[in-house]
What we know:
By secondary structure, the protein is of the alpha/beta class. It has two domains: 6-11 and 45-142, Ubiquitin-like (UB roll), CATH 3.10.20; 154-282, Cytidine Deaminase, domain 2 (3-Layer(aba) Sandwich), CATH 3.40.140.10. 26% of the residues lie in helices and 29% in strands. The chain has helices at 68-78, 113-121, 161-174, 176-181, 205-218, 236-244, 258-267; strands spanning 10-11, 19-25, 39-44, 47-53, 56-63, 88-96, 104-111, 126-127, 185-190, 196-202, 227-230, 249-252, 270-276, 279-282. The strands form three sheets. Strands 1-6-7-4-5-8 form a six-stranded mixed sheet. Strand 9 and strand 10 (196-202) form a beta hairpin. Helix 1 crosses helix 5 (205-218) and helix 6 (236-244) runs parallel beside helix 7 (258-267). The longest helix has 14 residues, at 161-174. Mean pLDDT is 89; it is low at 1-7 and 124-129.
Amino acid sequence: MPMHDLSETAETTPPLAPLSPLWAGQWCGGSGAFAQSMQAVEVAAEVPVALVFNGISHAVMMATPQDLAEFAVGFALSEGVVERPEDCRDVEVQTHGVGTPDASCSVHMEIAPRQFARLKERRRVLAGRTGCGVCGIESLQALDLHPAPLAAPVWREGLGAATVLRPFEALGARQLLNARAGSVHAAGWARPDGELVDVLEDVGRHNALDKLFGRLALTGRLGEPGFVVMTSRTSYELVRKCARMGVPAFATISAPTSLALQLAREAGMQLWGLCRPPSALRYV
């Protein structure tokens, strides 16, 4: 059963728009000549989003103000704030300063008392940026560079390039925000046969992944067979999040870093990169 019906998520203030048609642009051709007139262009919204657990602000991330209930739940799970979706309760999304340059959001969530007690013991304040996944870490030991080995499901042994590339062929049509703004990452969930079933978007790649995990959690589908696909490079924090969530295979449109490869190998995760039809490169 789903842990939470999204239709019941409290939205106490008007939501912020994920795109803003406030900017004027002027096209320039290869000859260097500008178009005669300016035109309005849409840009992706990037606003501070505070994640508040049991009344205490734990993290402030720069994110696209869309699917924020999913974001909060996915972040809590992938960062180890809670262990199970059932530990997340009463998600409430609030917006502040609508229509002003200082617009922001906060997501308030109650977590289980045992999880909250553990959180207070190792509490840290994060200042998240779209390109950073370790902001606010106080020590090297807190980086969590040694994930536990993952189970290898039988279906993964037959996972080949054709299946891995199938969701990428469908991903572009599902990136609705990126089609309009051109600056938004997507994280998708594919079934073992490569069918793309979920796509979540955000200006931050790790935010998009957290939104995806939150969507799976909120619909009661965490642990179902499948793999993650993304429109970004394979960075260390993405592999770490996938390993923590038990994802057995991960594929991205760009290449991995050395640390991402190290973590994937240690976790026993199948890792694919440069997934650009008609070819893909399996690293691990």
